[in-house]
Every structure is written in C-alpha cells, then in structure tokens.
Design brief:
20 strands, 28% strand, alpha+beta, 5 helices, five-stranded antiparallel sheet
Length: 335
C-alpha cells in the first residue's frame, strides 16, 4: 500500500488532507507552486513544509541502508547526509529504481570518501515531483522530506564517567539472555562507589596515549581494563566478538544480576563516545539509529560476545607493540 501524502498549503489555510483521487493533481500542480524547494547549488537541500514520510535504516560499521515506502505521484528521491559539514546530497543522480539507498561514501574533490565509521552521520530523503519530472530530472522539485535517521548508537550511554550518569544507566533486571554463565557479580553500592574513580584513571591514560582510530587497540586496552578493574575489587571480563559485524573486543561487568558492556575504544565508531557503559538490554540499534531495549522490526544488534575471558586468563603478547599497553597497566596498578 503506497503511503498517502498530506499537504500543508499555507499556514492561514490550515492542513489539507488530499483524497486519493485528487492527490496526483495536487502533487503535479499545487505542490510545484507551493514547494519550489529544489536542491540549491552545490547539492544542498532547502526546507520543505510538506508533512514528513517515514525513513528507516539498518546499520553496519561502514554503511547505512535506508528504506522508505513509495509515495504516490513521486518519481524519484534525493538523499542528504551530514557528517559534520552540513547536509549535502549523497546521490549523484536521483534515486528512481527503488525506495532504498545504501549510504557509504561522499564524493569530495572528485574522490569517494567513506564517512560512516568514525563520524556522527545524519540522513534524510527528499521526495521529488513535478510536471514531466519522470522524463527530465531538472524539472523536479522537492515536495516532501522524510523523517531523519542518525548514527546515535550510544545515545544516553556515552562518556559515562560520573556517578550521576551511572545511576541513570543502571537497570533493575536483565531482559536478554546472559553471556556469563557463572560470573562474579559486583554489588550495586560498591560499583557506584568504585566505578567513577577507576574510570577517571583509565580515561586519563586512554585520552593521552591512545589513538582512537588504532584498529588494534581494542584487544590490549580491554585487557588493561579487565585486569585493572578486577585488581580493585570490580570483577571485569574481556569479551571478544563483534560490534555489529566488525571484530571488536570490549569488557563485561556484572552488577547485581545484570550484565553491562564497558567499551573504552568506542570512539573508533563514533567520536566522543568513550567510555560507553550500556546495559546488555540496550545492545540493539533501532531503525532510527538509537539504542533500544525493545528490539522490533528493522533492528541491528551490537556488542555480540563470542568468547569471554576472566582477568586471570589474560596475558599481553611479548611484542614491541604490546609494550605501550603493559606500561599503561603498570602505571595504573602503581596508583
């Protein structure tokens, strides 16, 4: 069933709901006059006052797959992306063959640049219509704008360092299956007391000495966190698995009876995120890009553990690359 379009002609006329029989006429005549909102020079979009249609997405580390329902009398669509430089058009030509779009790169100075991983990305779709729009894209006008999606994977769970933020994150019970078959739990009051102090020490070393884009940092740094936290009475495990589909290593802590993911190297996915502290309940990304504890419909899993290691089983390799991480752990243990 194609999505009906409501048209807001002007503020003084209120909202006009267009019937199916009249919809085509209004879209091809009235909308062209009311919403002369074609993309500005340089591919930047101008605002449209048409009621939004729904955009949904599924995610990977390097790509966002957009989906939307087709609109009546709309021949094609433009996709707009903002990755920190303002919204620009992401599609070289209007999308007309299907109502989906795989966003992975932006063309800059004649070169394609992948921008999803390591950037905060926002996206929306603009519907195109107009007289003879199907035959000539230059005659198209943007007549409606979709709702937005964004890579908000850690919203509400990023940079959790203070006791105040920590209290907002802790949950009463776990609603998903357990990873730790027989883990050692930390009492809530002990965790609230110790976590901010331990995290402050780790954050200092991380921000001063680690490159967030170092692809090899997640394993040794999660080893540091596991051994340091555990040495201070907060049992902390290292998990090896995937963030969405990419290999990743992170930590798991059991507080009372609920498991949490602690990730000090999440900045490689979204800048300004570390440390991420998120209940296992919320390790799902909904169709708008935000974390959710109610996975339904088009939903993306994150932080999947394939192996879990107790701190006593962890060792650094005897290599030059591991020397930095051994030095960080030694510094922490001396504090």
């Amino acid at each position: 069933m194609k999505t009906a379009i409501r048209i807001r002609i002007a503020a003084e006329l209120g909202t006009l709901s267009v019937s199916r029989a009249a919809r085509s006429r209004y879209l091809t005549v009235s909308l062209v006059c009311a919403f002369a909102a074609a993309a500005a020079p340089g591919g930047r979009a101008q605002d449209s006052s048409a009621v939004a249609f729904t955009l949904s997405a599924s995610f990977s580390e390097t790509m966002v797959m957009l989906h939307w329902e087709p609109l009546d009398s709309v021949h094609s669509y433009n996709v707009y992306a903002d990755y920190g430089k303002g919204f620009v058009r992401a599609n070289p030509i209007p999308v007309s063959s299907r109502t989906q779009f795989a966003f992975a790169w932006i063309e800059e100075e004649g070169r394609r640049r992948r921008v999803v991983k390591g950037n905060s990305v926002s996206l929306y779709v603009a519907a195109l219509a107009g007289v003879r729009c199907a035959e000539d894209a230059s005659r198209c006008s943007e007549v409606a704008r979709s709702t937005g999606v964004a890579t908000r994977y850690f919203e509400g769970f990023a940079e959790v360092e203070s006791r105040r933020k920590l209290r907002k994150v802790l949950v009463k019970r776990q609603s998903v299956s357990r990873i730790l078959a027989s883990g050692r739990a930390v009492p809530r009051d002990v965790f609230l007391r110790e976590y901010p102090r331990l995290t402050a020490s780790v954050v200092k070393h991380y921000r001063e000495r680690i490159d967030p884009q170092d692809k090899g940092a997640c394993v040794p740094f999660s080893t540091i966190v596991s051994k340091y936290f555990s040495s201070r009475g907060v049992e902390c495990y290292r998990a090896q698995g995937r963030f969405i589909t990419q290999f990743h290593s992170f930590n798991i802590i059991l507080v009372d009876s609920s498991e949490y993911v602690l990730d000090f190297t999440a900045d490689q996915f979204l800048p300004g995120s570390s440390p991420v502290f998120i209940p296992r309940n919320n390790c799902f990304i909904d169709s708008t890009g935000a974390p959710t504890d109610s996975p339904q419909g088009r939903c993306t899993k994150m932080y999947r553990a394939e192996q879990v290691f107790a701190p006593r089983d962890l060792r650094f390799t005897d290599t030059e690359e591991a020397a930095l991480y051994r030095a960080i752990l030694d510094s922490l243990l001396r504090e």
